[in-house]
């Protein structure tokens, strides 16, 4: 027998021996014919409604002028007055945040001639600020005051709970309890016995504060802006997998 043939045969024997040695280990990891244990998977929902204790206002100052510089200057002066009024009303600096600054050209409408093109007629500058009002009783008065000082866009309001941790904790408890109740119903309907919980996974947390849809321009007609805070609802979901007991 040649050396080359002997080497090839030895290699084949070694590979075969390795396969035989690894087979018992693979059999232990995945026993032949064994199927995953039967399970029940459900999604539970928990929802909690609470009275809000904070209002979030979105206010915008819009100014227009022939040049971008003039529009920005006019906007800066108006926004400075608005911010000063908010601070005077007791709003802390940590509760004031610029939400956006936008400078855009204003175009003329093209003429009837197909070749006519719109031309720049001026510029508009908008500066938006988000305000957190921690005393709900002050929200209406603050809105009324800032409209008189230059706020002429926005007006979106959301009523929220400042500290939502206790609320979300209760929502999670209700979600798990709802999942258990659903799993029991399914097990009874299928005539099987519900086993232990194999896993719990939180799907999502979706705070849903009740919005106020009125615009600032409409609200400014009133001597005092009437607001109703209503109730804020917070919701969570959990995916729970149960074992079906033998």
Automatic annotation (TrEMBL):
Annotated signal peptide: 1-27
Gene3D superfamilies: Protein of unknown function (DUF541), domain 1 (3.30.110.170), Protein of unknown function (DUF541), domain 2 (3.30.70.2970)
Listed InterPro entries: 26kDa_periplasmic_antigen, SIMPL/DUF541
Keyword Signal tagged: yes
Pfam families according to UniProt: SIMPL (PF04402)
Coiled-coil region: none
Keywords carried by this UniProt record: Signal
This protein's name: SIMPL domain-containing protein
Source organism (scientific name): Bosea robiniae
């Amino acid at each position: 027998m040649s050396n080359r043939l002997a080497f090839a045969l030895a290699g084949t024997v070694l590979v075969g021996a390795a396969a035989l040695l690894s087979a018992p280990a693979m059999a232990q990891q995945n026993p032949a014919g064994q199927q995953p244990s039967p399970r029940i998977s459900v999604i539970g929902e928990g929802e909690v409604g609470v009275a809000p204790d904070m209002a979030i206002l979105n206010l915008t100052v819009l100014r227009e002028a022939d040049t971008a510089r003039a529009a920005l200057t006019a906007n800066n002066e108006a926004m400075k007055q608005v911010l000063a009024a908010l601070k005077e009303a007791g709003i802390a600096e940590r509760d004031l945040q610029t939400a956006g600054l936008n400078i855009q050209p204003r175009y003329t409408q093209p003429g009837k001639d197909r070749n006519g093109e719109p031309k720049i007629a001026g510029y508009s500058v908008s500066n938006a600020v988000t305000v957190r009002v921690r005393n709900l009783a002050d929200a209406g008065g603050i809105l009324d005051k800032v409209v008189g000082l230059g706020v002429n866009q926005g007006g979106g309001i959301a009523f929220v709970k400042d500290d939502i941790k206790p609320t979300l904790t209760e929502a999670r408890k209700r979600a798990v309890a709802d999942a258990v109740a659903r799993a029991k119903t399914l097990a009874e309907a299928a005539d099987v016995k519900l086993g232990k919980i194999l896993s719990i996974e939180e799907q999502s947390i979706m705070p849903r504060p009740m919005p106020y849809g009125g615009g600032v321009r409409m609200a400014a007609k009133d001597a005092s802006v009437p607001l109703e805070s209503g109730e804020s609802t917070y919701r969570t979901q959990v995916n729970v997998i149960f074992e079906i007991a033998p």
